[in-house]
Specification:
Layout (H helix, E strand, L loop, with lengths): L2 H22 L7 H22 L4 H5 L3 H27 L4 H11 L1 H16 L6
Helix pairs in contact: 2-6, 4-6, 5-6
């Protein structure tokens, strides 16, 4: 098994496990510490291809064939759905959305995880209504 196959498999195992944990959870909102940890870890890993292959190294992969474009559409759709779901909560929490949406557009999942980290932190630390 190549390094890339091992990384692919590890990502699959982590995603399935995480989705299983989320599905089993009965109550509660997102935890800003988990979102922040995942975002920081992914940002750290992302530095490897950025430094080795450049900040636009993803582009050739997504324009080489139909699968590449399909994966690009899948990523764009997933980010769009996540923003669609998070935006109303972010507005209610008092977040100015424009800078966060720009971060999502420029940073993809890293930006989204930063947005969610801030959102979850604000929700957890909101003053209680008397």
């Amino acid at each position: 098994m190549t390094t890339f196959e091992m990384l692919f498999t590890a990502g699959l195992v982590v995603a399935v496990g995480f989705i299983g944990l989320v599905a089993a959870r009965r109550t509660g909102n997102g935890d800003w510490r988990i979102a922040g940890l995942i975002g920081a870890a992914f940002a750290g890993y992302s530095m490897i291809p950025i430094l080795r292959e450049g900040p636009t190294g993803f582009y050739p992969i997504h324009v080489v064939n139909f699968w590449g474009v399909q994966v690009w559409f899948d990523l764009a759709l997933s980010l769009s759905c996540a923003v669609f779901l998070a935006a109303p909560r972010a507005r209610c929490a008092g977040m100015a959305l424009a800078p966060w949406l720009l971060l999502v557009l420029l940073g993809g999942s890293i930006g989204l995880l930063a947005l969610l980290t801030r959102l979850f932190w604000l929700e957890r630390n909101a003053p209680t209504q008397a």
